[in-house]
Amino acid sequence: MSGYFKDIYDGLATAMVGMKITWKHLFTKNVTIQYPDEKHDIPERVRNRLYVNMDDCIGCDQCAKACPVNCITIETAKSLPEEDLGVASVGNKKKLWVTRFDIDIAKCCYCGLCVPPCPTVCIFMTPVFEFSEYNRDDLIYRYSTLTAEEAAEKVANAERAKAEADAKKAADLEAKKKAAAEKAAAEKAAAEKAAAENAEGDGGAPQENNG
Fold first, then answer.
1. CATH no. for residue 102?
2. What does R_g of the chain's alpha carbons equal in angstroms?
3. In whole angstroms, how far apart are CA 168 and each of 22, 78, 140, 163, 171?
4. Confidence bin at 196 (pLDDT 50/70/90)
């Protein structure tokens, strides 16, 4: 019988604990924030929309590799020797043209894993949380500062420079092979000539008469 009343007591006590917050706010005056004219204070370390400072981007692709949902797409083209791309604010020399730097914020899970690997601290999470769109394509942010024509030109220049370097490397390799073959042929001819001269010398020497 005591167990029966104990179960009733435990049930009522549990209900009262659950209703504690409800009773607390039941007699408190409600305060409604008139959004969007009024907004909540945003925490200092909040993670919302990503931003990229392209002046500091060196195209290392570290942020894209760290992204668990593959929402970052980066394409680069190697600069020509005569092109000076300058340096980032932290001193890293820029050697690549960033022809494409897209972030599909619709895929972003706001984990912040892309921020720590960046050697120039050019990508970071901002407090901006109001960026809804009617079209999903508008949630793809394109940060590259090059136009489509400029990007195509940089890619073409890089491919042409690579083709010229490969051709020069192949020509140098062919020249080395040819020089090695000529050297081997010359050494073989010299060896054959020396052998022939030795043979002639042995055949022309006077023989000793033992009888």
1. 3.30.70.3270
2. 39
3. 80, 18, 41, 9, 5
4. confident
